């Protein structure tokens, strides 16, 4: 993958076709995702250095201007004739022009900072919490990519998520908050909700407090949600609203726990691989469609979890380093 395309992807300067190309490349391997993560860190460091360099350049310009003004004051003061008055006026005009140029530079630098976006990628087996500039708190689960501006605008707050995140959005009726997922947009004023949008899996939004409106990316359908509701979306089934589910465990993963309720082994494997940073292989395809329930506490290891599943007498396993092999007993 060309580095130029990856940089433009990080800076949100790609076409929809290029974005799909990069996302497909990221799904190919962990090495590709690590490469993007490292490149994001380099871009962030470079931007910080450029801002610092511009700030130092302005400081030097102000210092040089101050020195010239001090030197002018120390010179002898001639008699005020019309000619010297005009020279003084030209000097004042020149100084004003320099100051104006510096002010303009500061303005554009500040505006550029406010328009700049940050991107956070969370590797497997890790979780991250963020505090945004508006007071919104965000928890990001493993293998999640979250993009947000350094500073929100006065009338709108926007962020992007690929993966899973739990949000406690600071209430501000004059400045709505929009979370863009690959297939859905979530519009809120102030609320608590969980959003999942992993590649190759259904999108889902679960509301804990407040109210949100979920809209498909093509703006064709909208769905208003109330506390306890959950919305699932796939291109095949569209928006599906589950009323009054009241799942109190939607944010347990933010503390390191995993509550896997009535899930197929196929669904559980995806979350366990992200949670423990392992690769799980299943030798019996029929086993993938069997349902399990398991509460994985944050202090449990992958070995302990597999022992719990083994007690169901429906599967057995072996572990070799970071690879787990599941088979019929």
Number of domains: 3
Order of helices and strands: HHHHEEEEEEEEEEEEEEHEEHEE
Q: State the major sheet.
A: 13 strands, mixed
Number of helical stretches of at least 4 residues = 6
Radius of gyration: 28 Å
Describe this structure in words.
- By secondary structure, the protein is α+β, with helices and mostly antiparallel strands.
- It folds into three domains: 1-115; 132-242, Jelly Rolls; 257-327, Phage tail protein beta-alpha-beta fold (3-Layer(bab) Sandwich).
- It has helices at residues 3-10, 16-26, 30-74, 82-115, 265-276, 302-310, and strands at residues 117-122, 128-131, 137-140, 144-149, 157-168, 177-180, 184-188, 192-197, 203-209, 212-216, 222-225, 230-234, 238-242, 258-264, 279-282, 291-296, 316-320, 323-327.
- The radius of gyration is 28 Å and the shape is globular.
- The two termini are 43 Å apart.
